Amino acid sequence: MIQSLTDTILLNNGVKMPGFGLGVFQVSNEETIFSVQKAIEAGYISIDTAQIYGNEAGVGEGIRRGLAATGKTREELFITTKLWNHNLNYEQTISAFDESLLNLGLDYVDLYLIHWPGDNEFLAPWKAMEDLYAAGKIRAIGVSNFERHHLETLLESAKIKPVLNQIELHPRLAQKEMRTFAKENNIAIEAWAPLMQGQLLQDQTILALAEKYQKSAAQIILRWHIQHGIIVIPKSMKEERIASNAAIFDFELSEQDLEIIDQLNNGTRVGPHPDLFFFE
């Protein structure tokens, strides 16, 4: 279990990935510059974006400002972006990656993910990603929003196993079966929408635990993820909340309280089901 913002989880290819980072979904370029800079200043070293978010350039500028303000180096950071793989063949995947790299202003990315499985639209892009990885342009490759059957299909032909599956995961959607399958196959799990896009912050069970531990509802939920070994990337555009989200390493939920939160699981999603999302 990670104990700080800079603690890492060992991925199956030997790369170390921070267990806690900043997400920038639905954040404008200007807001992204600010939030990424402030996150780096607050001690974050992991930033997660995606081609479809349209803010890779903002992430890149935020990184440059954050490094200038802190004296950190690029090598100390862990940057993730994702391929919007709809109808992409091998060559188009290479071009899309190059465009992301250009937008970010980086020489390489630490983690590159296929954003959605679509209607099994991932085999050609995965081959391209394997070659980009072999060329040293990516330190690790993985997937996002894959169900078990998608992973099984990919594993049948992949030369390189995905290091990670980034999925919607929060106390209402605990993804226990996927977490078990991933553990059996040495694939890390990362949660997007870990706070259920704010919908869990007024849950009475969470609020009662927040009162018990003298922490915020968000801190209780994020701590639940960490104690379950789930990599987490909460989004915030406010400097104080960026710092507050990360202030979860000075307490620990009891096993009984973890189980109380576990019982909130009812399969509710805030995003689309991967089997029903085909890029329309």
Automatic annotation (TrEMBL):
Active site (record annotation): Y53 (proton donor)
SUPFAM superfamilies registered for this protein in UniProt: NAD(P)-linked oxidoreductase
Residues reported in the UniProt entry to bind substrate: H115
Domain NADP-dependent oxidoreductase: 26-265
Example GO molecular function: oxidoreductase activity, acting on the CH-OH group of donors, NAD or NADP as acceptor
Site keyed Lowers pKa of active site Tyr: positions: K82
Pfam families: Aldo_ket_red
Keywords: NADP, Oxidoreductase
Signal peptide coordinates: none
Family the entry assigns: Belongs to the aldo/keto reductase family.
Protein name: Glyoxal reductase
Source organism of this protein record: Enterococcus termitis
